Amino acid sequence: MKETINRLRSQGAVLIEAADTPALVEAARVSLLGRKGEITSLLRGLKDVDPQDRPALGADLNLLKTELAALLDERSSALAVGQGSSSGVELDLSLPGKPPVGTGTTHPLLSVMESVCDIFYGMGFTRSDGPEVELDYYNFTALNFPDDHPARDIQDTFYINDQVCLRTQTSPVQVRTMERTEPPLASIFPGRVYRNENADASHSSEFFQIEGLVVDKAISMADLKDTVDTFVRLFFGAAEPTRFRPHFFPFTEPSVEVDMQCVACRGAGCGICGQTGWLEIMGAGMVHPNVFKAVGYPDDAYTGFAFGMGIDRIAMLKYGIGDIRLLYENDLRFLNQFRGVL
Ligand code: DAH
Fold first, then answer.
1. Rounded to whole angstroms, how far apart are CA atoms 3 and 25?
2. Which residue of 166, 207, 211, 253 sits with most ligand 1 atoms within 8 Å of its CB, as the best mutation to test the pocket?
3. Which of 183, 133, 136, 134 is nearest to 296 (CA)?
4. Residue 195 contacts by C-beta under 8 Å, 6 or more apart in sequence?
5. Which stretches of 166-297 are DSSP H helices?
6. CA-based Rg of the chain, rounded to a whole angstrom?
7. Is the bond leading into 254 cis (omega within 30 degrees of zero)?
């Protein structure tokens, strides 16, 4: 048996040295140390050996097992780092790796929202967030909507109960912010809003808005105009002219809709702007005294402007997206076009 052990010791070493792939190392491990291997059958045969020789032979066999296992492990790790491969192909650890496939990116809506926020941070605005499930009081009453205003209709608003709805606009965050902040204040409120709409190319029952509010002692419409123009210049990358059109919102007086000259036709008139040369980008106005009253500001102490715009809308205008539903369907063929662009 002694000779067999010595033969196995040298044959085993040769076999392991010759194994130059992980599969061959594994095959050597099975043939040397496996249940059907020679060492296992020698260990089984120990019971027939002269009892005097048994302890020494047993110890030697176990030592052989340990030695071969160590050689096998060494060989496996040498192959794993590409060292000592007899095939001559070595792993170059300095090569760049394969880029991972299928990683996610920021959704275009979120990217646009963040870049709009960044523009306003640059002008000194802070940011607050409010709840999407909102009290009717903040969404309507405190914003000077009369009880019978059509926007309060269940045809337009998703109600949870009599007093609670899904907010239909980001304007309620104005009220929440003013309630806890003494002017001067300049803040933006981005977020998701909900309306009871049937989906089509320009309507969705959920979309995103960003609201802005500035309140101080002598804020005028000229401040609003300058803020809007600065935003348009920085977001659309060109000094497109803007114009104010008189409008009505319950929470501002006077109220306007803000148009910018059509980015596609530069005012000449085209399909995108309905031949008018102008694109509506936001609603705005001077904060109504009733809103100041609702938040507890002293009479006539402050003036302020507010604006609200659809993030979806300006994203669609900037990137020429013709259907708002594309922004909510999560079709990777659509989304992947924005990879690395925004
Ligand atoms: N909340 C309005 C809407 O959803 C948008 C808006 C208009 C916001 C005028 C304002 C504003 O802050 O002053 O249609």
1. 25
2. 211
3. 183
4. 156, 157, 158, 168, 205, 207
5. 172-180, 221-236, 289-294
6. 37
7. yes
Identify the CA nearest to 240 among candidates 218, 219, 224, 258. 258
C-alpha of residue 245 to centroid of ligand 1, in Å: 14
User: CB–CB of 331/313 below 8 Å?
Assistant: no
Tell me the sheet residues that pair with 208: 192
Fold of 108-338: BirA Bifunctional Protein; domain 2 (3.30.930)
36-79 pLDDT tens trace: 888 888 888 888 888 898 888 888 888 989 999 899 998 888 88
Contacts of 302 (CB under 8 A, 6+ apart): 183, 215, 216, 217, 219, 292
Amino acid present at 219 = I
Strand partners, 252: 249, 287
Q: Which one of 207, 251, 309, 311 would you pick to mutate in the ligand 1 pocket, going by the greatest count of ligand atoms within 8 A of its CB?
A: 251
Is the pTM above the cut of 0.85? no
How is 67-80 classified by DSSP, letter by letter?
HHHHHHHHHHHHHH
Domain ranges, ordered by start, for the chain: 2-80, 108-338
Cα of 274 from ligand 1 centre, angstroms? 23
DSSP assignment of 107-157 equals: -HHHHHHHHHHHHHHHTT-EE----SEEEHHHHTGGGT--TT-GGGSTTTS
* Ligand 1 pocket list (CB less than 6 A): 169, 171, 211, 249, 252, 283-285, 306-308
> Whole-angstrom Cα distance, residue 337 to residue 321?
12
Condensed to tens digits (0 to 9), the pLDDT of residues 141-163 reads 999 999 999 889 888 999 999 99
| CA-to-CA dists, residue 140 to 20, 172, 199, 304, angstroms | 76, 8, 24, 19
